[in-house]
Design brief:
There is one protein chain. The chain has a domain of 279 residues. Helices cover 66% and strands 0% of the residues. The N terminus is likely disordered. It is a multi-pass membrane protein.
Length: 758
């Protein structure tokens, strides 16, 4: 069938096929599967990959999207583009001690472009780009798998030949519909993995193009090798894993281009065999190309290291508990257990969770733990595959197994904890690239089974069933990623011991105003992790709002005791102490918060409120001024300054502050209202009226706005308009303080005027 498909290529191409058929078995001969032309194969893969994740297109910003996108100043136009090259993925300076050192400027740049064209934080555009990226990557996988499974061969005209169209289509479909990819596609932050994978594959395909003019392995294009290195660097600027493509290119060069037998080569090296040149290392330029790849990779890593700074990222025990274990044995056992769980997610991606930290996977502390079986199973399979990859007499088998293991293991190395501590236990997003290796091994295994099976169609139907189940699982999981409520609740059944899951469910409920339910989940988070300071802080906040001040104080005091530099908890503790009228302690808590977070406008605002309660007016004004310097759009601080100056009779100063505030926040109706009050007292009635009317237009249902405008008209002598706005104010709020009395005064005055007129 393959020969007939390419008859137009003339006899030379048939000779190439004949030579390939003699030297290597064709996987496609073993399986009963669809044979489609390359174009239609790619169309099918694109459509099915789109079908899997299409329902995520109108999802919200969820989980890490808030920090990486909504709260990331690097997306906004006022931030210079140059800052992207000095900040981490979350918008923090790389030199900061709190930075995670995740350097992905190109990914952040695409977020910024999304933000620019959308005109704000509208998630649809972000989601659509992610879906398109996954579809594009899945299409590229058809070409990649055709090389990995069928070998790299070119026609005399330099056109690459697909010698495994059936198996490459199957492997690409397996990749396209794998449910473990949902986090990368449906979660906008997953774009880092998608962009990294895109340039990773382009680098690999570019390296393959270097041998288009290759005659028996002697010649190669230096330009395409350099292009491959550059694309690898771009992949790394999207996410750190990207650099591993250079190692895979070297493995591919050795196994496919140079057809090196690793076991034979090792034996020759051990015996100092002088026939190494005959093994093809020097004759075919392999050492030169590997040197070029490694030197390029080392240069890229050095530049990144210099930009990042020498300090490692700061992670906590809750992020990755195994890495903080004192015993080397405990660390090693648990790392290997994590590897086995990652492998299980590839094999059976049914239990998926947005976060696997905080007690989701309890530590293995002794060999009596039954979970040790998972480690044994993993290494039994890996050792078996490695032995077959090294020792098999079948060169075709050696090549495919080694490439499959290479793509499975090498891209996973940055997440393995072997070279540095990572900030997670398991992250589904980091197995996006390693899943390529899984798809190679699965497809090869299916081919071997088909070769032995008498009823090949039954196996084909079984694989179709797996694909269909995966499509449905992707659609279901994508729908869970559409909103935080669905995402967080879906994790409760997967990781019931994960304190962060309960924390996030509680936070989502609190944001929606369901404080009673939120308290339940926050308490469970603290029970599961008694050192979970963020849960204590949020629970303390809710209890403070419900006036349960004693318990709130206990929780917040415990939080700052566990984490003394937790500025938000110190500020909230100060608010509680202020409510308990323990003013000195409150002031001390506020200043401790500011000590740990120098730029803390909300804390200065609360400190100003404390000073105002103590009639320390100058200190209050200074605190609020600090808040507005740090955050010019801090409306509450501006308002309090205007009101305090107004109440103390400093009308000119209050007016100046009000005008300054409105220049910075021109559409804030509360500032218009405050300044209008000041102008009315200064008898600047016309300007005051204009501001009142503008404030009412922005917020027509504010009773106080109508009431104070009525007072202005009352003073000004426009009694009919005063009566109208008093009535509107009382209709909106019949209990509005002072309004009823003023209205009654006005009515008496109007009655007197009517009597005089009569």
């Amino acid at each position: 069938q393959i020969f007939n498909q390419h008859n137009a290529e003339a006899p030379n191409l048939q000779q190439v096929f004949h030579r390939m058929a003699q030297t290597e078995p064709n996987l496609d001969h073993n399986i009963s599967w669809f044979l489609l032309p390359s174009y239609w194969a790619k169309v099918v893969v694109a459509l099915i990959s789109f079908l899997c994740f299409a329902n995520s297109y109108d999802g919200d910003f969820v989980f890490d999207d808030s920090e990486a996108i909504i709260n990331n100043k690097d997306l906004r136009a006022e931030t210079p583009l140059g800052d992207l090259w000095h900040h981490d993925f979350w918008g923090s300076k790389l030199s900061s001690n709190t930075s995670h050192k995740s350097y992905r400027p190109l990914t952040v740049l695409t977020f910024r472009i999304n933000y620019f064209f959308a005109g704000g934080f509208y998630p649809v555009g972000f989601h659509v780009i992610n879906i398109i990226l996954h579809c594009t990557i899945s299409v590229l996988m058809v070409d990649v798998f055709s090389i990995l499974l069928g070998g790299l061969q070119f026609s005399n005209k330099g056109r690459r030949l697909n010698l495994a169209p059936k198996t490459s289509l199957l492997a690409a479909l397996l990749f396209a519909v794998h449910p473990v990819h949902t986090e990368c596609v449906a979660g906008i932050v997953g774009r880092a993995d998608l962009l990294c994978a895109l340039f990773f594959l382009l680098s690999f395909l570019g390296y393959c193009k270097a041998f288009r003019e290759n005659k028996e392995g002697h010649n190669f294009s230096m330009l395409w090798v350099l292009v491959s290195v550059i694309l690898g660097a771009i992949a790394m600027l999207c996410k750190e894993q990207g650099i591993t493509v250079l190692g895979l290119n070297a493995v591919f060069d050795a196994l496919v281009i140079n057809k090196i037998n690793v076991l034979e080569l090792t034996q020759k090296l051990l015996h100092k065999d002088k026939s190494l040149e005959n093994a093809g290392l020097l004759r075919k330029g392999l050492l030169f190309r590997i040197t070029l790849l490694m030197s390029g990779g080392a240069s890229i890593l050095y530049i990144r290291w210099r930009i990042m700074g020498t300090g490692p990222p700061a992670f906590t025990e809750v992020d990755n508990p195994a890495s903080f274990a004192d015993s080397l044995f405990v660390r090693a056992i648990n790392y290997n257990y994590y590897y086995s769980l990652n492998a299980w997610l590839l094999l059976c991606p049914w239990w998926l969770c947005f976060d696997w930290s905080m007690g989701c996977i309890p530590l293995i502390k002794s060999v009596s733990d039954c979970r040790i079986i998972a480690l044994a199973a993993l290494w039994f399979c890996l050792i078996g595959l490695i032995c077959q990859a090294l020792c098999s007499e079948d060169s075709h088998k050696r090549r495919i197994l080694t490439l499959g293991l290479g793509f499975l293991i090498i891209p996973f190395l940055p997440a393995s904890n072997l070279f540095f501590r990572v900030g997670f236990v398991i992250a589904e997003r980091v197995i996006y690239l390693p899943s390529i290796g899984y798809c190679i091994l699965f497809t090869y295994g299916f081919s071997l089974l088909s070769k032995q099976a008498k009823k090949k169609k039954i196996l084909a139907v079984a694989v179709l069933g797996i694909l269909l189940i995966n499509v449905m699982r992707c659609a279901l999981r994508s729908s869970q990623w559409r909103s935080e409520e669905q995402l967080f609740r879906s994790a409760l059944s997967v990781c019931p011991l994960n304190a962060k899951v309960h924390y996030n469910v509680g936070k989502n409920l609190a944001d929606k105003g369901n404080q009673s339910a939120a308290i339940k989940y926050y308490r469970e988070a603290v029970r599961l992790n008694p050192k979970y300071v963020h849960a204590m802080n949020n629970l303390g906040n809710i209890l403070k709002e419900r006036n349960e001040l004693r318990e709130a104080e206990e929780l917040l005091s415990l939080a700052v005791q566990i984490q003394p530099d937790f500025a938000a908890a110190w500020m909230n503790l100060g608010i509680v102490q202020n409510s308990l009228r323990r003013f000195e302690e409150a002031e001390q808590s506020y200043w401790t918060a500011i000590k740990h977070r120098k730029k803390y406008p909300d804390c200065y605002y609360n400190l100003g409120r404390l000073y105002a309660d103590l009639n320390r007016h100058i200190d209050a004004l200074n605190a609020w001024r600090n808040a507005t310097v740090l955050k010019p759009e801090h409306s509450l601080a501006w308002n309090n300054m205007i009101i305090l100056l107004d109440n103390t009779g400093n009308l000119a100063q209050a007016e100046a502050v009000g005008r300054e505030a409105l220049e910075l926040i021109p559409n804030d109706h509360s500032l218009m209202f405050s300044l209008a009050n000041v102008l009315g007292k200064s008898q600047k009635y016309k300007e005051s009226e204009a501001l009142f009317l503008k404030a009412i237009k922005a917020n027509p249902n504010a009773a106080s706005y109508h009431g104070n405008l009525a007072v202005l008209y009352h003073r000004w002598g426009n009694l009919d308009l005063a009566k109208k706005h008093y009535e509107v104010s009382l209709k909106l709020d019949p209990m509005a303080p002072g309004t009823k009395e003023n209205y009654n005064l006005l009515r008496r005055k109007l009655e007197q005027l009517q009597k005089k007129g009569g």
